[in-house]
Fold:
Amino acid sequence: MKRGKIIEKICKCLRLSESGNPHEAAAAIRQAHGLMRKYGISEQQVLIGHVAESSVESSLKHKPPFWSLALSNVVANSFGCRAYISRKAGQKTRFRFIGIGHAAEISGYTFKVLHRGLRQARQQFIQQLALDDKTEKTRRGDIFAQAWLFRIAQLVADFSGEEQNKAIVEEYVKQHYGAPTEMRSTAKATDKPDYHDILSGMQAAAGVDLFRPMEKQEQYTLAQ
Structure:
């Protein structure tokens, strides 16, 4: 039996160990531990077997702006995930989230909704600027987006409350992708004349609301 199949079987046993039937749960744990001993599978290898991926396609075919990258990191860190950018020639940029269990899926969904909301808010802000200079419009739009992001960061962190599993995710990435290239981006510098743009960005983010369902479920609800 291939190692990947063995780890998958161990993970299945561990899921069965959460059963409400104590005898069934105990049997599942014994079977999981037995397989680990028999095939020399470590606890870390089993945890890596729980790592999942989620990806979100953007509308960009070039390097994402600072606020897009920053938002992906804010969301990923809040759910104990890592965010990566996937770019291939002729294809749109994809934001990839890697984490344990449902964390990756939740991160991808949260990022998709927030990124769409931020992009729309930024575009509306730019459209109401009485400027002909496209470069200045873009700069002010970026400052607006950065302020929006600053306001939303704590909201996302409060909503998630997930434990960090960085070491396991890092090992998974190393095994599957090797050493990724770091993408650097710089925030737009601000000055006193930008105060109105900053205030507008923070006010626009104030209307965003994230909430959990009343019952304890695997599903999460996000509304805007």
